[in-house]
Design a protein that fits this description.
Elements (H helix, E strand, L loop, with lengths): L1 H17 L4 E4 L5 E4 L2 H7 L4 E4 L3 E2 L12 E4 L14 E3 L2 E3 L7 E3 L2 E2 L3 E3 L4
Parallel strand pairs: 3-5, 4-6, 5-8, 6-9, 7-10
Antiparallel strand pairs: 1-2, 1-3
Amino acid sequence: MKNLLTFILLLTITYTAHAQGRIAVQQDSVTVAFYTDLATALDSAAPNSTVYLPGGGFILATNYVINKPLNIIGVGYNVDSTQATNQTVLPQIRFGVGADGSSISGCYLTSYVHVLTGT
């Protein structure tokens, strides 16, 4: 019985540790879509959508530019406050000319936020 309980506990821990978080994109108060890839979620989001990121690290191409206003919300950046979910870790973020009014909160940025300007 003890071995069975140990096996179930290990299986639960393994499943929880390897569960892939879903990125939720809310386009209005009713419509929500889920993605596993950050670039796909950002591409699919309509202007002024809210993108909810789970804990974990995300990969984004260095030349990827957000060209529409989006609100990006992670689960948190402080290690002490995100023990249950892990931090939301993002690489560099580049906002283009059309991204006026965008926001990022609850994310740990490993590099920079670059705001592109143009005429």
